[in-house]
Design a protein that fits this description.
alpha/beta, 7-stranded mixed beta sheet, 671 residues, 26% helix, Endonuclease, Chain A
């Protein structure tokens, strides 16, 4: 029986976005070199526990993504809830490539607004399906919980220091990107994305306050190369002793080297560690490569062997990936420890993993415009690892179970390694357009108006045939139903450019699917699940950019979970709804109040055509009037004396206009 059968299968990169039990996904920042919609949809579903269709209906941005501008734009139609933000100034960008792969995620407790979790993810792999299905990559993750800050110990402070360092990098990076979309909201409703973003910022500040003077394990190369910082990071997290083993792995190596010599970056790493007395003078050196693409290493195997380097193929455990699947090494790592003949322990171990390939731009250069990528990684001291030399070694603790390494095979100069290609040069495919979104306003006749905050000068909106829509100084005319996104066109130095931008509806929903009409039973189930997303009906394709054009907005869905069609007693149905709303909203916390008001309005607007509403109009009564009473409202919104109360009352006024009941008598008022 194989010793490895008990090995647990590790989480995929997307599964690290999973919301903890009893928590809700709030907001997250991501940066990386590349991403695709397939991965992002999976990650967003783990983060929000909402399907693609639900996220398309909710129309809220939960994840903000900053990528190298060589990545083609990823539409909110293809990955609802994920905003791919464009770089502000491609020509003036401060890095050669944006290559760091970092995520900061915030989760809030379902019932207690004072409880939260912040998660930091550092990955060697991109946010792509290829990472999940084809590559050998590594990920490092930590969580900080709000209750840990009450009595913070040294481990909590260390994690807080990592959060602080990562937040500093992402905060600076966000200043280089166009983040206007995160502030997009409806005319009467604030941006839910901005609220969640600011809430995450508050949690991150609390972590930063706890970090004190603690040095972080997380680091980047904005000011210094990764290599120049490596010795100090090792001393901060592990013993300051010389190790006799160094293991190196990378998806890319230097593209050229002096014939018959070891690639320079590898010798620089060894030299730097030896100079700092962190590596012995004659260490065991292993270099793991992709045999089909290892750049200069392919022609330097013999020279490397003479200098003590053994070149090996990456390890790919069948326990994790099966016996038939071959994966290519993409992970970037350095692992060093002491090995003794009388022990299987990896003593005094430290591990670097991150985005930086073992190349000049990736590892030995600071960030710069011409020859230095933006890279990030982490150095930490893994505990209780084993070399796996003994028959009874615990397989879960073996180095080959946590890193893509193996000790049975190595290459020589006759094995025909291939240099493969270098990191591809990519033109900038995504630059910030003049506007980040357009706001929709219904017109009195068919269709509507698309408004740009700064006006329409120098900008056109194109129809599906590429023709410019009619416009005034304030808006563009749109003769059809509200689109989820539109194509805009503008000129730069005489060159015409186009981009797809999302449309924001009156409720502040971004690139959202059309809201179907509801009866009151269905309306209640839409409200009852708050703050979770409404149930996924599974009928509409969220990728249909113009589903409203197909008439969905005018269809009544099948009866909701109550099992009823049109109510036999419309008055009873309406009063039950009012009582249910009152019971629900008196338990909602102030932090969620703006979101609740938005959900309440958008749900009841699409219930305006129900038979129960018509019945109350026939009776000359305003069914919404009881909701104005203080006992039906939470304490912080029980009157117009507070901002929360003003927001709520404004919602009721607009609903009365939509239902055409505002001038009718209030329930319980003598005629």
């Amino acid at each position: 029986m194989s010793r490895r059968k008990s090995l647990p299968v590790p989480l995929t990169l997307a599964q690290h976005f999973e919301v903890p039990d009893e928590y809700l996904g709030g907001f997250g920042w991501l940066c990386g070199y590349s991403a695709d919609a397939e991965f992002l949809n999976t990650a967003a579903e783990y983060f929000t526990h909402q399907t693609q269709a639900q996220r398309a209906s909710v129309g809220r941005v939960s994840l903000a993504l900053m990528l190298d501008p060589g990545n083609a734009p990823i539409s909110l139609l293809d990955a609802p809830g994920v905003a791919h933000l464009p770089l502000r100034d491609v020509e003036g960008r401060p890095f050669t490539l944006l290559h760091a792969k970092v995520a900061l995620l915030g989760f809030r407790h379902r019932g207690d607004p004072t409880r939260w979790i912040v998660r930091l993810i550092v990955s060697t792999g991109n946010w792509t399906r290829q990472t999940v299905e084809e590559s050998l990559d590594l990920v490092w993750r930590i969580d900080v919980r709000s209750e840990e800050l009450l009595v913070a110990d040294s481990d909590t402070r260390l994690r807080c220091a990592d959060i602080r360092a990562a937040h500093s990098l992402l905060r600076w990076l966000a200043s280089q990107f166009d983040t206007r979309l995160l502030d997009a909201g409806g005319r009467e409703h604030p941006s839910e994305a901005a609220t969640a973003r600011d809430r995450l910022g508050e949690w991150l500040s609390l972590c930063e306050n706890q970090a004190g003077t603690q040095a972080p394990r997380f680091f980047h190369n904005r000011d210094q190369s990764l290599l120049s910082q490596l010795p100090a990071k090792i001393r901060d997290t592990a013993e300051s002793v010389s190790r006799n083993c160094l293991v190196m792995g990378s998806g890319y190596y230097e593209s050229s080297a002096t014939p018959g010599s070891v690639p320079a970056v590898l010798t620089e790493i060894v030299g730097a560690l030896q100079e700092e007395r962190l590596l012995t003078g004659s260490p065991w050196l292993d270099v793991f490569v992709n045999p089909e693409g290892c750049q200069a290493v392919a022609q330097a195997v013999d020279a490397m062997r003479k200098k003590g380097f053994r070149v090996r193929p990456a390890g790919c455990l069948p326990d994790y990936f099966g016996t038939r699947q071959q994966r290519s090494l993409h992970a970037k790592f350095l692992f060093s420890a002491n090995s003794r003949k009388d022990s299987d322990n990896c003593s005094s171990a430290w591990l670097y993993l991150g985005s930086g390939n073992l190349t000049g731009p990736g590892f030995t250069s600071r960030m710069n415009r011409h020859a230095g990528n933006l890279e990030a990684g982490v150095v930490f001291a893994p505990q209780s690892l084993l070399w796996g030399e003994l028959e009874d070694s615990d397989p879960a603790r073996m180095v080959s179970s946590v890193l893509p390494v193996q000790w049975d095979k190595q290459f020589d100069a006759t094995d025909g390694l291939s240099a493969g290609g270098d990191m591809p040069d990519r033109p900038a495919l995504y630059v910030a357009p003049p506007v980040a979104w357009l706001r929709w306003r219904d017109a009195e006749d068919a269709g509507g108006l698309l408004e740009a905050e700064q006006g329409t000068a120098g900008l056109d909106v194109l129809d599906s045939m590429g023709n410019a829509r009619a416009k005034t100084a304030e808006y563009f005319r749109w003769s059809d139903a509200r689109p989820r996104q539109v194509t805009i066109q503008w000129a730069v130095a005489g060159e015409m450019r186009t981009a797809e931008v999302p449309v924001v509806d009156a409720f502040g929903r971004i690139a959202a699917a059309a809201l179907p009409r509801l009866d009151l039973t269905e309306a209640w189930w839409q409200l009852a699940c708050f703050p979770m997303a409404p149930e996924d009906e599974g009928d509409n394709d969220p990728n249909d950019a113009n589903d409203a054009d197909q008439g969905n907005a005018g269809q009544v869905r099948p009866a909701g979970r109550g099992g009823k069609g049109v109510a036999s007693y419309p008055v009873r149905e309406m009063m039950e709804l009012v009582e249910q709303i009152a019971a629900k909203q008196t338990r909602i916390g102030e932090a969620d109040w703006a979101s609740w008001c938005s959900r309440l309005e958008q749900t009841l607007v699409v219930a305006a055509g129900s038979t129960s509403v018509a019945a109350f109009r026939a009776l000359g009564l305003n069914p919404l009037s009881p909701l104005k009473a203080a006992p039906f409202r939470p304490d912080f919104a029980e009157s117009a004396a507070t901002t929360a109360g003003q927001r709520y009352e404004a919602v009721l006024v607009r609903l009365e206009e939509t239902w055409n009941v505002g001038t009718l008598a209030a329930i319980g008022v003598a005629q």
